[in-house]
């Protein structure tokens, strides 16, 4: 009796272990993370304090590099924080290979250019802060795929175009900070479905049209900034 009960779970466990091994063999690992970060580093054109130049060295594990945090469970890069380092550069498509990244901050540097579509692979992102740089181009509609995103901070850049309505898909979003950019068009109505939103900063853009009444549905909202736009009734 005891034996027949014991065998099937063992079998299941074996199957599971085999499946896990197959999965990790075919997907990315810490070596992928290292090469992604080395490509990123090679496109940093100005590093005045020589932070990455000397510290991001292949003679130590990527997990010891300044600004890099690895998770203990999967031994992959989970956070990248290069805030306040006075770096100039662009975001390379390779960063999309950091598939365990949940927190990414380049706050207050001089990064520029558009955001590559490969970033859409960062499905674990909870925190994205690209504030106070010189990024341009549009917020791509694929931002709607960041299902776990809680904070999206793109303020003080040169982003333009419309705020994509797929932003209404970010159901975990608590903070959306898009002020001091060049966003145009109407505030998308789906913003009213972000039921966890507490802070919404859209001030100092070129937004126009009516303020969607659906914003009144945001019961968690603590702060709303809409000044310095071309909105009706403002
Ligand atoms: C990462 O995966 C590659 C194959 O995709 C393999 O050659 C390499 O040994 C792996 N590295 C680690 C640290 O597991
Ligand atoms: C890189 O910086 C980290 C964090 O400041 C430090 O712990 C590490 O020793 C440095 N590594 C090298 C090779 O300079
Ligand atoms: C990133 O680093 C800066 C400066 O060290 C720190 O103030 C900030 O809290 C960090 N951000 C995150 C998300 O860890
Ligand atoms: C990482 O990303 C780049 C560009 O998106 C790609 O060419 C490369 O093959 C990817 N994979 C690895 C394992 O580096
Ligand atoms: C952006 O950074 C500059 C310094 O580079 C600082 O003076 C300014 O206050 C920052 N702006 C915001 C909105 O954080
Ligand atoms: C919205 O989110 C759902 C669930 O994460 C996803 O299946 C869907 O493709 C997303 N749509 C867009 C347009 O981002
Ligand atoms: C509005 O944003 C621009 C940058 O896009 C900045 O130069 C300007 O000082 C901001 N104005 C206000 C009133 O915050
Ligand atoms: C959101 O607000 C609109 C207009 O005020 C209302 O018609 C709609 O029922 C609300 N939706 C939800 C899900 O509360």
Structure in words:
With 234 residues, this protein is α/β, with parallel strands linked by helices. 18% of the residues lie in helices and 24% in strands. The chain has a single domain (12-231), classed as Leucine-rich repeat, LRR (right-handed beta-alpha superhelix), CATH 3.80.10. It has helices at 2-26, 30-42, 51-55, and strands at residues 44-46, 68-70, 77-81, 88-90, 103-105, 110-113, 127-129, 134-137, 151-153, 158-162, 175-177, 182-185, 199-201, 206-209, 223-225, 230-231. Strand 2 and strand 3 form a beta hairpin. The chain starts with a helix and ends with a strand. Bound molecules: 2-acetamido-2-deoxy-beta-D-glucopyranose (8 copies). Residues 1-24 form the signal peptide. Pfam families: LRR_1, LRRNT_2. Residues 32-70 form the Leucine-rich repeat-containing N-terminal plant-type domain.
Could you write a compact summary of the structure shown?
By secondary structure, the chain is α/β, with parallel strands linked by helices. 18% of the residues lie in helices and 24% in strands.
In terms of structural class, how would the helical and strand content be classed? Answer: alpha/beta
At CATH level 3, the topology is Leucine-rich repeat, LRR (right-handed beta-alpha superhelix)
Shape: globular
- Write down the secondary-structure element order: HHEHEEEEEEEEEEEEEEE
Mean pLDDT: 90
Number of helices: 3
Helical amount: 10-25%
Tell me the β content.
15-25%
Low-confidence stretches: 1-7, 12-26
Instruction: Report how far apart the termini are.
Output: 76 Å
């Amino acid at each position: 009796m005891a034996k027949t009960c014991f065998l099937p779970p063992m079998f299941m466990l074996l199957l599971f272990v085999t499946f896990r091994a197959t999965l990790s063999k075919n997907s990315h690992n810490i070596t992928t993370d290292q090469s992604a970060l080395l490509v990123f580093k090679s496109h940093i054109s100005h590093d005045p304090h020589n932070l990455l130049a000397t510290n991001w060295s292949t003679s130590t594990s990527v997990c010891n590099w300044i600004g890099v945090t690895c998770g203990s469970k999967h031994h992959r890069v989970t956070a990248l924080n290069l805030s306040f380092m006075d770096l100039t550069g662009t975001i390379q498509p390779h960063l999309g290979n950091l598939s365990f990244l949940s927190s990414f901050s380049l706050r207050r540097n001089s990064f520029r250019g558009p955001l590559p579509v490969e970033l859409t692979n960062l499905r674990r992102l909870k925190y994205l802060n690209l504030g106070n740089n010189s990024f341009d181009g549009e917020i791509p509609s694929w931002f709607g795929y960041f299902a776990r995103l809680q904070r999206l901070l793109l303020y003080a850049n040169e982003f333009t175009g419309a705020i994509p309505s797929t932003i209404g898909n970010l159901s975990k979003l608590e903070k959306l900070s898009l002020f001091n950019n060049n966003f145009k068009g109407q505030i998308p109505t789906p913003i009213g479905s972000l039921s966890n939103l507490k802070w919404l900063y859209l001030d100092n853009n070129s937004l126009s049209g009516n303020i969607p009444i659906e914003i009144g549905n945001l019961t968690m909202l603590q702060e709303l900034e809409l000044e310095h736009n071309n909105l009706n009734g403002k």
